Structures are given as C-alpha cells and as structure tokens.
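Hey all, sorry for the wall of text incoming. These are the two entities for the joint prediction.
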Amino acid sequence: MRTGSSRGSLRVLGIDPGLTRCGVGVVDVAPDRSAQLVHVGVVRSDADAPIEERLAVIAAGLRAVLEAHGPDVVAVERVFAQHNRQTVMGTAQASGIALLIAGERGIPAATHTPSEVKAAITGYGNADKRQVQTMVARVLRLEELPKPADAADALALALCHAWRGAPAASGRSSSPLTPAQRAWADAERLARR
Amino acid sequence: MRTGSSRGSLRVLGIDPGLTRCGVGVVDVAPDRSAQLVHVGVVRSDADAPIEERLAVIAAGLRAVLEAHGPDVVAVERVFAQHNRQTVMGTAQASGIALLIAGERGIPAATHTPSEVKAAITGYGNADKRQVQTMVARVLRLEELPKPADAADALALALCHAWRGAPAASGRSSSPLTPAQRAWADAERLARR
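and here's what came out:
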C-alpha cells in the first residue's frame, strides 16, 4: 500500500465531507514539514438517490480510499450548525460517515475548522480559497491547482492536520507539540484573531 | 428471525438517533393498524471516547439490531439544524449512521419529524412526551411505559412510520395511501395546524 512514503513520515487522509461530493486527499508529510501527494479525488453520490443509498455510496467510496492508501490518521472538516442550514444536515451526516470509517478500522480521526485549515496552510485564517489552493499546489509541487475545490480542500485539511500536531476530534488530549510546532500554533492563533 | 410477525404485517425499526443514547424499537404493524412489540432497547456510546470510536460503537449496535430482527424498513427521527446547537451535530452524525446501516443492506429508510410522530401517535402535533409514551404503551399492550425516553421515542417513530403510509426520507415519492390512511393523514395535517 505505502508506495511513496519515506520512513518517519505521517500519511494523512483528509476528507472534505459532503453528500454530493466528498473531497479526499492523501499526503505523506515528513518531520521537516515537506509533503508528497499520494492521492486526490472526489467521492460522489447521486442527488436523486434516497439519502440512505447516498450515504452507503459515500461510505463505500471512502473505505476504498482507506484500503488503497492505509493512512495513519484521518482528518475531517468540522461542520458547524450555524452555517448554510439547508445543506448542513447532509454535510454533518457525511462527516459522521467519514469519522465512522476511521473508527471502524481503529484509525484515529481528528476534525479541523475551515479557519484552522486556512491559518495552517497560508498563515492567515481569513485566506480565500484561491490562496489556499495555490499554497497546496506549491507545497505538493503540483503543476496545476487541484480541482475540484472539494479535492483541494481535502488536501489542505490533510496538510493542516500534519502541520498542526494533530489535535484530536474530541475527548482526547492533543499530542505534545515540538517547540517549532508550538511557535507555529501560536502564530496561527494570532493570525486568527 | 421473524418470530411474532403475522403475514402481511410490516416490521419497522425505529431509531431515535443520538451519540450518547440511540433508542431502537422494532414493531410489527398489521394492515388493521394493530401493533406488536418485537424489540426495544438503547445503543449507548461512552461520552469520553473519541467521536470516531463512538460512531463505530453505534453502527455496530444498530447493525446487531438489524441482523437480529430483519425489519422491512428503518424509520429515523429527522434532525433540524436550528434545535439545540450544542448537540445537534452529534445527533446528525448518529442519524447519518442510522440511515447508512439501512442503505448498506438495501433496506429502505425514511425520516419523520418529532411533530409528525406526535401527531401520528396522539393525533396532536404538540403532545407532550408523557402522552406519546402512554399511547405507545397502550397500543403495544405494555404494562409499563417504555424507558428510557429514547427507547419510547424509537417505538413511537416505528409506529408513526407504519401508520403514516411511509413517506420516504428524500428523493422518492410516497407510497400510495389507502383511503383510510389518507383520511388519517388529512386528520394529522389538521391536527398540526
């Protein structure tokens, strides 16, 4: 399964949850923060299908990515109730499926907010999508910006998780940070103010 | 698997989704609307465990009920973004798991709002929990009110689904109603105004 991963690197599967499109991105991140693209894609479900079938299609697609690439950890975008009420329930359900497929295999999962991701990638919590995508492409040495946006967001989530020192999804204390990670985390906190 | 179900009856698994407690109730409902209790219980997850493990525990518990009782259809309480923001995301994620386990096995699923359930059970969409529980116990000829409340809610959901003529979760047209069901549905609509 592991093809491009060097020893000591962390393989992260980032998932941008959604009912219609779930972005998935797998990266290997070395201790020096350099990163390598392993996989990027989108799991889709048919908007005309019943919700239970859509969720089953998404679960099967995410499991296939997990099986193919064997990540050490899964990072999922955190969904908030107050945003975009019409679609938020479907997004929350898809995020539940994303966390479930990690939990079923005993792989740790974590969630990160969009502003945490932006701050981790660009140093600025209010960065726009284009800035995030440009930085993701640069870090991963891609010739083009990753598309669609959901796939780019999933890669950004995965990088964010590796760089932030992996705060847990809930109910679990954060991993200890190195001094460099702590300095970075402090800078991010300032950037988010 | 089918033990108490008579021919022509519909076996419904009702699920009241939650991260800490998922109520589950299985009933057989005959065409004359009489109903029989098959199973009632609660699937719990440890509030101190990471979210991905909690969702895996809930999925395993719900799958066990599905395997043991082989319902024809799964009815899940519909979650709204505007209610109780602090827990709504966890509830939405659990509802996604409930719908997923149906979809994975090709069992149709449907969602019903709390007021639909109250109206179907008591004829009154603003009925309180106690009124709903009392009616559920009477219909199922139980000597005590079902406990905890999540288990009672799951039974109410299952009865509601069978009695309402099974509107689909989404993206699917309703089953045709019999004249009696239509009259009942009309009465419920009036009761909810």
